[in-house]
Amino acid sequence: MGKRVKWTRRVGLIIYTIIFASPLIWLLTSTLKLPNQIFMQPPQWIPNPITFNNYIQAVKVIPFFTYLKNTIIISVFSTIGVVLSSITPAYALARMNFRGKRLAFYILLGTMFLPFPAIMIPTYLIFAKLGWTGSFLPLIVPSFVGDAFSIFLLRQFYVRLPSELLDAARVDGASEWQILGYVVVPLSRAAIATVAVLNFTFMWSDFVRPLLYLNETERYTLSIGLQNYQEHHATSWHLALSATVLFMIPIFLTFWAAQRTFISGLTLGSLKE
Amino acid sequence: MFKHLKTMSGAMLILILALTACVSKASPTAEPTQPQPTQPQPTEPPKTKVTINFWHANTEAAEGPPMAEIIAAFNKIHPEIEVKQLWDTPLDKAMAAITAGNSPDLIIQWGPQFVGSWANAGALEPLDDYLKRGDVDPNDFIPGILGSTTYKDKIYGLPFGTDMSMLIYNADHFKAAGLDPEKPPMTTEELLQYAEKLTKVENGEITQIGWLPNYAWTHVAGDGSISVRFGPTFFHEDGTPGFDDPRWVEVFDFAKWVFDKYGIDNVKRFVSGFGEYGTAQDAICSGKLSMIYDGEWYTNFIKKNCPNLNYRVVPFPYPSKHPELKNNWEMGGTTVIMPAKAPHKEEAWQFLAFMQQPENIAKFCLSSTLGNIPHTLKALALYDNYKSNLPADFKYFIDLAKTGQAVVIPASPISDEYFTELSKTEEQIYNGTVSVEDGLKDLQKRLMDIYNQKVSK
Amino acid sequence: MGRAHKFLPWFFLSPWLIGLVAFTIIPILATLYYSFTRYNFFTPPSWVGLDNYSNLMVDPEFWKSLGNTLYLTLIGVPLSLGYAFLSAVALNQSFRGVGFLRALFYLPSVIPPVAAAVTWAWVLNPQYGIVNSVLHLIGIRGPIWFFDPDWSKPGLILLMLWCSGGFIIIYLAGLQDISQSLYEAAELDGASPLQILWFITWPMVSSVTMFNLIIGLLGGLQYFTQAYVISAPNTAGVSTPGAPMSSLLFLAMQLYIKAFKRLEMGAASAMAWVLFLISVILIGLLLRRYKWESE
User: Which residues in chain A are closer than 8 Å to C31, comparing Cβ atoms?
Assistant: First the structure.
């Protein structure tokens, strides 16, 4: 490829990226303006003066830290649950032999594609009859009984583990538990981290389940809290947008720290063998 | 050999224990249900301390201060009944909690519209037997207001404050448009003429709009309703919806004027840039809207957000065809209900009856944080004691409540669908996708279908 | 494998099996059962046979929500894939800092959907949003986006494209698997970049496309959050679900309202079952063309 073509491609990409990122830039600059400057036409690109007051106001008006605390609790505990409950089924489906293994795998695949609305009502009713609605339990407990997608991811990883390692351990007289604990889990730390990060992000961002199960504002997560605020104060843009930025920050940080884990997780699942 | 298994399951156990501890500590403290007596008990106060749960749709900032005073006074008479309050709990959240088995004893909600469908579903406790005791005088209520909470001849809720709307307009805009601010529009036709003068269009874009029929608390029906001035039938005597009444055509012919004249896209475009209602960026405060038909709390907002605004408050115009309707106002406001699954009905009634005493109604409604219209005649008479809490023009609202003709939308099991379908038809009419007559015919048909389905017994 | 306990695999599987029964199989069957009843939670369910389904067939709101959902799924998802593919091709360069650019493209897909929706409600604000302001600069009067029934779904598709970072990354991985020699051979034969793209690159990532398509369709059929966030506020005087003019009413949203606001759980369950069947058929058809390794 000619050098000029290469440079055109490069510059083109950079321009494209800037256009692509402009909603985020626009979001940010809007939050740094005075409330009535937001309603200016033509819009100012660079806020003048720059004010952080909107953020201070937003945190006062929206119980940000309460919502943050709730979101952390739900995300952390359900991530722990998913990790703990996905390892053994994934290993069984990948490396153990038993009657019905293929059927079980197909069922797993099938449930991966189950739309949540199809089971929403009875699941809600189960929790209502248990008296758990309004608490965090409906959001956390299901994680402890396996997540199809996580099991699938780990299974794909375990299938590719070199058999020699496992066979060698068996020849040495190790039980399946020991193989799992001493060989497989340590080897799959990256994949487990991927499962953890993906689930954490999903639970953090989830809207439908908290909408269903949480009633009191003190229990709201950030998603529900932000949506609830925006529903009633949509045009107080300076506050709604500031709250949005605050809401995005923890995810930005997680993403920054765990970029490769996110990306490898996606490719783990997608590549055909 | 099982080292990892042990650690894993141990960790899981600890987690689950911790979770249940966290959750149960943070659970709302509704008392365990006790066996319910089928008749209301005689008025002998129980000996043990009882906590009743009272859920509010509104915020603590608005209803908290007057409630605190009322509860303090209540506890002087009933020290054994503790009232625990929860705020910011709108209807669907309350309903969700009740379905989970966590029912409060009393709920106070905006609007009486939900009473019909909840009563129909068996979710509310009828209050007729309690009212027979005589602590609360239903005849003192503004005539007709109980119609909104009466379903199948039983009373399922009691109002607690009602609302009233008047026309509030920007006097400076009037002057700039060549109108005399001391001569407000008297008829609906005049209102539209004024609106035309007050609307400014520059380069094809609206920069100021005179009047909107669907902004904030202005509605065709239900709260701040325009239709009371035209007198259409909301529901027929037999409970079926009344959109076959030709007066609805008059209502919508009036309402859709703005959209026909300026184009709905242009109006929506302009309105999409409004700041939040009730703040300093509000449409009235920022001079984008000239006239608004809004409730008695609105002048309080103006005082707080744009005190320099030169405004007037007058009754909303009447159609020249129906001058007899010029003092009609639609009753709405807040309603208190007792859920059918309330654990402490007797104590809840004690508190509700106390709340309904005139001085407590006045204390609540006329507090400076709230500003509602009291719903009983005796409480209305106490306005002078509280008028320093509120802006001077609140007086206009009170006077109209005392002298005007109150209209109420009767409770109906399809009230939810009634207003949703009405909104949909309203949207279609304003968008021009359907004519007024066709839209109303279709609305009536849809609602009749819903009515027949729901009320098939 | 000789010494493995016969039941050990089942023990390993047990967490998943418990969840499968309790939170998948039982609810699916329960939904089917409820769909034949009238149930409002306060009173026990009463059998009504196929009434819910026949009512659904004549319910204009159902057809509207189905139409909206299919619009987004069958138009928005393929557009997202095409867009993601082209973006991946553009990002498939190597120079210092390209990693940062790729991360930027991926970022919006990680942002919580509520946050992304609020952001775009502002981006597409008719009066002050950046899109209309830029259009204004070049002399075009932009549409009123989320306030116009004809432009609200296209607005959502724009949001969808912006959040297709996951697809982009997966495509990138697929692109990087294509051997250079293929390109070199094509260039030698005199193929233009466009021809290379169409005849070589695109077919070589077809398995990735299939995977993305399945995931995308599944998401499209359940689409809820973003539409809910954008249509819920009562701005511009409208408070009906899926405003404006039900253009943002999707199946999952209609289901939610029917079940939890109207307490018509029987009717909602019928809708849920219909959604389930549609998903099974669509995704089943696709899956058959994309076989998974089972051993």
Answer: 118-119, 121-122
Q: Which residues are paired to C222 by β-bridges?
A: none
Render pLDDT for C103-161 as a digit per residue (tens, 0 to 9). 889 889 989 999 999 999 999 999 989 999 999 989 899 999 999 999 999 999 999 99
- Confirm or reject contact between C273 and chain A (CB < 8 A): yes
- Band (C179; pLDDT cuts 50, 70, 90): confident
Closest to B15 (Cβ–Cβ): which among A80, A132, A134?
Answer: A80
What SS3 state is found at C100?
Answer: helix
Residue C241 at interface with chain B, using a CB cutoff of 8 Å: yes
Which among B13, B59, B276 is the top mutation candidate for probing chain A, defined by the most A β-carbons within 10 Å of its own β-carbon?
A: B276
CA distance B453 to chain C (A): 10
Joined together, the tokens standing for residue B77 give 């008479």
Contacts of A185 in chain B (CB under 8 A): 4
Judge whether B116 lies within some domain.
yes
User: Does C4 score more than 60 pLDDT?
Assistant: no
pLDDT score for B47: 60
- Say if the Cβ atoms of C237 and B270 lie within 8 Å: no
The CATH number covering residue C256 comes to 1.10.3720.10
The pLDDT of residue B7: 41
In chain A, residues 118-177 whose CB comes closer than 8 Å to chain B: 127-128, 131-137, 140, 144, 175, 177
Residues in chain A where the model's pLDDT stays below 70: 1, 262-273
Q: Give, in degrees to the nearest 5, the angle at Cα C250 between C244 and C253.
A: 100
Q: Which residues of C touch A121 (CB under 8 A)?
A: 27, 30-31, 34, 259, 265, 268-269, 272
Q: How far apart are CA A185 and CA B4, in angstroms?
A: 11
Domain membership flag for residue C57: no
Q: Are residues B432 and B312 in the same domain?
A: yes
pLDDT of B297? 84
User: Taking the model in full, what pTM does it have?
Assistant: 0.86
What residues of chain A lie within 8 A of the CB of B101, using their CB?
128, 131
Residue A234 contacts B where some CB pair is shorter than 8 Å: yes
- Closest C-alpha among C129, B214, C132, B266 to residue A235: C129
Q: What CATH number does the domain containing B393 carry?
A: 3.40.190.10
Predicted ipTM beyond 0.90:
no
Number of compact structural domains in chain A: 2
Inspect the interface and report whether the beta carbons of A255 and C103 lie closer than 8 Å: yes
Q: Find the Cα–Cα–Cα–Cα dihedral B282, B287, B293, B295, rounded to 10°.
A: 40
Can you tell me the distance from the alpha carbon of B387 to that of A128, in angstroms, rounded to the nearest whole number? 47
Q: Could you say which residues of chain B have pLDDT below 70?
A: 1-47, 456-457
Residue given tokens 């799924």 in the structure block: C73
Distance CA C214, CA A17 (A): 27
Query: Would the pLDDT of C295 be above 70?
Result: no
- Percent of chain C at pLDDT > 70 equals 94
CB contact under 8 A, C130 and A105: no
For residue B302, is it within any domain? yes
Residue C213 and residue B435: Cα distance in Å, rounded? Answer: 43
CA-nearest residue to B272 within chain C is C236
For residue C188, the enclosing domain spans 68-265
Residues A17 and A131 in one domain: no
Across the interface, which of C126, C237, C238 has its CB nearest the CB of B269?
Answer: C126
Angle formed at CA B354 by CA B407 and CA B34, multiple of 5 degrees: 110
pLDDT of residue B45: 53
The pLDDT assigned to B4 comes to: 42
| C-alpha to C-alpha distances, C256 to A121, A211, A212, A224, C266, nearest whole angstrom | 9, 10, 9, 15, 12
Q: How close does chain A come to C115, measured CA to CA in Å?
A: 5
C-alpha B221/C-alpha A22 separation (Å) is: 43
Q: What is the pLDDT of residues C29-45, one digit of tens each?
A: 999 999 999 998 777 89
Looking at residue B302, its amino acid is: I
